[in-house]
Amino acid sequence: MKYIVILCDGMADEPLESLSGKTPLEAAKTLNMDRLAKNAEIGMVQTVPKGMSPGSDTANLSVIGYDPKKYYSGRSPLEALSIGAQMGDLDVSFRCNLVTLTEDEDCYEERTILDHSSGEISTEDAAVLMEALSKGLAKDGYHFYVGTSYRHLLIQNNGHVTELTPPHDILTKKIGGYLPEDEVLREMMVKSYDILKDHPINIKRREEGKNPANSAWFWGAGTRPALTSFEEKNKVKGAMISAVDLLKGIAVGAEMDNITVEGANGGLHTNYGGKAEAAVKALTEDGYDFVYVHIEAPDEMGHQGSTDDKIKAIELIDDLVIGPVAEGLEQAGEDYRMLILPDHPTPVRVRTHTGDPVPYMLYDSTNAVKGQDEYSERTAQKTGIFREKGDRLIDHLLERE
Ligand SMILES: [Zn+2]
């Protein structure tokens, strides 16, 4: 038996007036999902435990089978794992954003934060600035790592996890009241401004009308998550297919292999077909029993508030991922169980995540059960099946219960 999760990030939504009361999933043309739905178990699952924040981190941990209440130790350590940063048990990782502050004030505390992403600075430019920070802020027991675009990392040996402010939560505010209480971190931030402000890259960015990356901002502190090995826990060999650092990090933590797909970028125009091909190859040729295919696009379209693009993303997943994976396994003569679900809703109306339960569909090629005409929020609610513990759904997929 082969096992597949197709994780459609943020796909669940609400009935929309503009779609005559349908949700984007209902409005999308999804021939493949509809075909599977007729013989699949469909129900609702609470992926994010009540009281926890509905992030892709907590929700995906849960779907992979790790109770976020027990295993979640912050977002930045998962990202640290994905970029190969070394983290000991006593180390603390911090997200280090490159941000844009106002420049007219006399002292650091008086500045206002304008942009948490420095105009989504390129990784190339950011790497040069991070190098400058790494040298200028060098201190025993502190290590900087370059990530992607404005997202980087600082790892402190033998540190403490403290409450820090996410920079995207205080845009246009004066920063004085939101700086770290930890003196080392605070001093590093003050000094980062002096190092970065007149760096040639920022002089050029100002000339080009772009936001200068003139300060580091530390937040999202956490320790290394102590995930048990996925293979040891479940007795199946698993692989992750995702473009997103966070998911790759969860895979590293769970000792699953990451399969890289060229052109997979987390956007609407990602390489859907390449992901499907990689999944089928992993299962039929490379000896994996389980693959987790994560597709970011519906979530991004939800954040953008674009109903049409969200529908488009769902149709592309149906046409280019779900169809080809099912066909590929059927042609190879493999029996399979396929679980399709979002991690959390990202309704286009609210443009952010919610913690509501999500619809799931579990199809077993060897066991045709009586299903529904289609897979949607509505049909999933109608069946009355509700799984309260999201981290146990994987046991159901893997026939462990
Ligand atoms: Zn999101």
Automatic annotation (TrEMBL):
InterPro entries: Alkaline_phosphatase_core_sf (IPR017850), ApgAM_prokaryotes (IPR023665), Metalloenzyme (IPR006124), Pglycerate_mutase_ApgM (IPR004456). Residues 1-378 form the Metalloenzyme domain. One of its GO terms (molecular function) is kinase activity. The keyword Transferase applies. The keyword Nucleotide-binding does not apply. Signal peptide: none annotated. Keywords: Glycolysis, Isomerase, Kinase, Transferase. Pathway: Carbohydrate degradation. One of its GO terms (biological process) is glycolytic process. It holds the Pfam family PhosphMutase. It comes from the Bacteria. It catalyses: (2R)-2-phosphoglycerate = (2R)-3-phosphoglycerate. NCBIfam families: apgM, hyp_Hser_kinase, PRK04200.1. Belongs to the BPG-independent phosphoglycerate mutase family. A-PGAM subfamily. Catalyzes the interconversion of 2-phosphoglycerate and 3-phosphoglycerate. This is Putative homoserine kinase. The lineage of its organism: Bacteria, Bacillati, Bacillota, Clostridia, Lachnospirales.
